[in-house]
Amino acid sequence: MNGLTKQELYDILKNHHEVEFQFNGETFVIQPETEGGLSFLTLWRIDDDPACISKTQLSSKDTISDNEINSFLGEICLDGKSFLDIAEQVTVTVVY
Fold this sequence. Notes:
Layout: H1 6-14, E1 19-23, E2 26-35, E3 38-45, E4 51-57, H2 66-73, E5 76-78, E6 81-82, H3 83-86, E7 91-95
């Protein structure tokens, strides 16, 4: 991953911040979200027509565990691959 280490990514998400990255010429954002009193980790494609392409409910609205992040990043949702599969091809562009 260009721009962050894996541990930095986990720490950013655990602190409820967002990470924008590019993969295959498209821009994506991983972000924690709260909806209806429930918390989620979400992955959005934000080019042209924004779309949520992955959403995982978290066990707590206050904390995000390494296991939850690992499970979320392991979901197959990016051209038949997971974030973990493509991490070496990702360039982190912004941390919110």
